[in-house]
Amino acid sequence: MRGREKFDVVIAGASFAGLAVASRLKGKVLLIDRKDIGSLPTSACVTSLSLIKEGSCERSVLQVVDKVKFSTPHGTISFKPITPLATFDYRAFCRCLSPSAEFRKENVVAFDGNELETNGARYSARIFVDCTGWRARLASLLDGGFLDHCKLGFGLETEVDYKADSAHFLWDPEIIRRGYAWIFPKGEKAGFGLGSYGGKTDLLPRLRKLVTGYGLEVGKIRGGFMPCGLRSPVLQKLFLVGDSAGQILPLTGEGIRQSIYFGERCGEIIQRIIDGEVHLEKGLKDYELLVGRHRGVYRFFERLQGLWPRIPTWGVQLVAHLLAKEPLCRLAQENYLRWPFENAQVFS
Ligand SMILES: Cc1cc2nc3c(=O)[nH]c(=O)nc-3n(C[C@H](O)[C@H](O)[C@H](O)COP(=O)(O)OP(=O)(O)OC[C@H]3O[C@@H](n4cnc5c(N)ncnc54)[C@H](O)[C@@H]3O)c2cc1C
After folding, report:
1. 155 C-alpha vs ligand 1 centroid, how far in Å?
2. What domains can you pick out in the chain, each with its CATH number?
3. Exposure winner among 113, 122, 215, 271, fewest CB in 10 A?
């Protein structure tokens, strides 16, 4: 073990959230992850093409998708997204986001709020940021009761050789109860996945059934838990961003845009602390307030996630049918995609 080292900021977790925080920071910043950056995605890696373009990460795009299909046992509805979606290569995307901060491949094992210990060294810093995903490793080490294990969904995906031209969502209790299935095109391949709102982890037999239904074989598996509902974005003097703060959206399970949005805002606040423009306490409060402004949106989607599986499938089909009609289709998409970037109050 090396001796204790001092940094301005130490960020644990170098995926979407951690990279976004670091992208806004100058100074002595350390980024820690137990894996090499971009080496092991949990995500299906679909987001809006505009987000990828804003980060100048076009090289990571696997396929641009301008058609969405939604199926229930009663039929399939198609619509054109107002802004195309894109599937992307996780490694290339992370590489593109990679900031100038120093990176070390280490595993966080202890944290007391002032000092962080990994399997390689001990670190002290003015500011620590927890971007370790759903486990919220730093926050959990500070407060053993931080995680609510009842509020976790779970997702599993496999990539197989299959060409498709649309992002396909399937709402069918025969495939999965209290959750949904997806097929996302990725060039010569496609990601077949299942998401369980109830956090069921034994999804492999169902995923196999879905994939073999297309005459295909399950390939390499990836996945993980998805927190449901906002958690506290600060704990004592610790900032939390991304899944560690529950910033993934309930119902849809979309978390990449949110991790990047809140990560960049958090990084900007931290930079003002480093520059001496605001005290740490004020910075923590500002970040808490910023996230708090979106609480209404999260509550809305959390309630929908609880309600949606109780609606009979014909009712789901009817709602989807109405939502796919203009002008509702455009309006719903505009509101959904504008958030969290422009309109924090849409659903509150
Ligand atoms: C199956 C599945 C599919 C999904 N698909 C999509 C999608 O298509 N689009 C979308 O928008 N969202 C999707 N999501 C949600 C999205 O993946 C998450 O919201 C997003 O990854 C959160 O980013 P993050 O940086 O907060 O956490 P993560 O991406 O989970 O990264 C956490 C990082 O912390 C590191 N870490 C953890 N513990 C330690 C430790 N002790 N020491 C050091 N490092 C540590 C990990 O190695 C990891 O790199 C999906 C989620 C799942 C489970």
Report:
1. 11
2. 4-41+90-148+230-314+326-338 (3.50.50.60)
3. 215
